[in-house]
Design goal:
The complex is a heterodimer of chains A (232) and B (247). Chain A has a single domain (2-227), classed as Orthogonal Bundle (MetI-like fold). Chain A has 232 residues and is mostly helical. Chain A has 11 helices and no strands. Helix content of chain A is 77%, strand content 0%. Chain B is an alpha/beta fold and 247 residues long. Chain B has one domain: Rossmann fold. Helix content of chain B is 37%, strand content 25%. Chain B has helices spanning 43-50, 75-78, 95-105, 110-123, 139-151, 169-186, 197-203, 221-226, 233-242, and strands spanning 5-14, 17-27, 32-36, 58-63, 66-67, 81-84, 157-161, 189-194, 206-211, 214-220. In chain B, helix 6 (169-186) links the parallel strand 7 (157-161) and strand 8. In chain B, helix 3 (95-105) packs parallel to helix 5 and helix 4 (110-123) crosses helix 5 (139-151). Chain B is globular. The two termini of chain B are 36 Å apart. Classes of the chains: A mainly alpha (232), B alpha/beta (247). The interface between A and B is medium-sized, with 17 and 27 residues.
Chain lengths: 232, 247
């Protein structure tokens, strides 16, 4: 209990004292997580809508691969990205390994299946009759899509929150592709692992409180968006 | 003068089964047409084909004498029609927004939308529910909102697919009485699918009996009910046991 209280005090001290390194790590964490979830949403939302509303040959197979991705171990994602970006790998020429971009790539790999799969599930539940009714109201295809997105706002934001939860908690892949380089690729989760391995539990706990606060703030903002104007 | 809607040599098949086979059928301006038949007779499919919401397998649907390309009815034409289904299928939002949706999709100015929604809410006696979420309405309230949503666009033809069948008897009677008055006032051509003789008898002026995808008899409602032909007599007599109209 004392350790927890000490950790919380240290976290407050770190924030109030304006520790430059903590701010840099927190800012980088926020940046990579938000960019990752933004890209995952931009790809996963249309893909999920398409898979949810259409039927074509090979759709089930594609869905199966996406659903397998839900349980993709982060270290496996990290390993794949590492092999892709390794000097002799297909994208080795870009020299992106051990950069924040590499962390973003790994985080997209783990969050994209979540956003896609949950979006697809939501759209798949729209009944044929509802689609018929919207068409009968005189909606164009774009208007139909917009109406459905508005109707499924809660489920879509839940998919984005689940994806964000995965990227903010991610450590294995970030460690592997980012290398936890001070001032360059060090993010909150990789720093916590490092401090624990050094036996600095108080610093690790302090950073964990900062990480929790960041996650809480972002999730609270998304929840506010999800639940606003809900009338009864 | 050409009929408002006309079917010519129309067939509709699903999984190699003939669902509709209609050599000829017309809907004239201003009539309140009932389409009645047993479950699985093809009533709802016919309604969808007539409203250009589904494609026939062969044959033609003509609007004011002009053949409409199968499965490719222009948006402007679809927007002349309106449909209300058995389930009200309202959207998550206020009653006001739900009734306004057809006008919003047609990009009608907001001031006109407000005026029209208020007018239609009053006609269907749902003004007091304006700010309520449409998903939390009772069955009768939801169906009133559904019908107001369909009527607000002042459709050339209103299609109704058993909109009263899920309601309890007193609610159904009250809504049907209100609805009949509104339709007579607006003089909207209406196609009403039902398997309920009481609803058909109360609302419609013309009746088509459909059995196994074929229209077996068409004519003014009282005449069809009083003089069923050999193809429709057994179906109508079953109903008349429970609703003794025009025995």
């Amino acid at each position: 209990m004392d350790l927890l209280i000490d950790g919380l005090k240290k976290a407050i001290d770190m924030i109030l004292s304006g520790d430059q390194e903590v701010f840099a790590i927190t800012w980088l964490t926020l940046k990579v997580c938000l960019i990752s979830i933004l890209i995952s949403t931009l790809i996963g939302l249309p893909l999920g809508i398409f898979l949810g509303l259409t039927r074509f040959k090979g759709r089930r197979l594609l869905l199966m691969f996406i659903n397998i991705g839900l349980g993709l171990p982060p270290v496996v994602a990290g390993l794949w990205i590492t092999m892709l970006l390794w000097r002799s790998g297909p994208l080795g020429g870009l020299t992106l390994l051990y950069s924040p971009t590499a962390i973003v790539m790994a985080q997209i790999l783990v969050s994209l299946p979540i956003v896609t799969s949950l979006t697809c599930t939501a759209f798949q539940q729209i009944s044929e009759k509802m689609l018929l009714q919207i068409k009968a109201l005189g909606a164009t295809k774009v208007q139909t899509l917009w109406l459905l997105i508005k109707q499924l706002k809660i489920a879509i934001l839940a998919a984005i929150m689940a994806g964000f939860g995965r990227v903010i908690a991610e450590v294995g892949a970030a460690m592997m592709v980012g290398g936890n380089i001070q001032g360059d690729t060090r993010i909150l989760t990789t720093t916590i692992v490092m401090e624990v391995s050094k036996g600095n539990f108080d610093i690790a706990l302090a950073l964990s409180f900062i990480l929790l606060s960041v996650a809480l703030l972002i999730t609270a903002a998304l929840t506010f968006l999800q639940q606003r104007k809900r009338i009864s | 003068m050409s009929p408002l809607l006309e079917l010519k040599k129309l067939t509709y098949q699903a999984q190699r089964k003939m669902i509709l086979d209609i050599p000829e059928f017309q809907i004239e301006t201003g009539e309140f047409l009932g389409i009645m038949g047993p479950n699985g007779a093809g009533k709802s499919t016919l309604l969808k084909v007539l409203a250009f919401l589904d494609q026939q397998t062969s044959g033609e649907v003509l609007y004011r004498g002009q053949a409409i390309p199968n499965g490719n009815a222009p948006l402007e034409l679809r927007r002349k029609f309106s449909i209300a289904l058995q389930q009200s299928l309202l959207l998550d939002g206020t009653v006001f927004d739900n009734i306004a949706i057809g006008l919003t999709l047609r990009k009608v100015p907001k001031s006109i939308i407000k005026e029209k929604v208020e007018q239609w809410m009053e006609l269907f006696a749902v003004s007091h529910l304006a700010k309520k979420n449409a998903l939390y309405l009772s069955g009768g309230e939801a169906q009133r909102v559904n019908l107001a949503r369909a009527m607000i666009v002042e459709p050339e033809i209103l299609f109704l697919d058993e909109p009263f069948s899920a309601l309890d008897f007193p609610t159904k009677i009250r809504l049907m009485e209100d609805f009949k008055g509104i339709i007579e006032e607006a003089q909207t051509t209406t196609v009403f699918v039902s398997h309920d003789l009481m609803e058909i008898h109360f609302l419609t002026t013309k009746l088509a009996i459909i059995v196994n995808g074929e229209i077996k008899q068409v004519g003014p409602t009282p005449r069809v009910l009083e003089h069923p032909n050999s193809s429709t007599v057994s179906f109508l007599n079953e109903w008349k046991k429970f609703y003794p109209v025009a025995r």
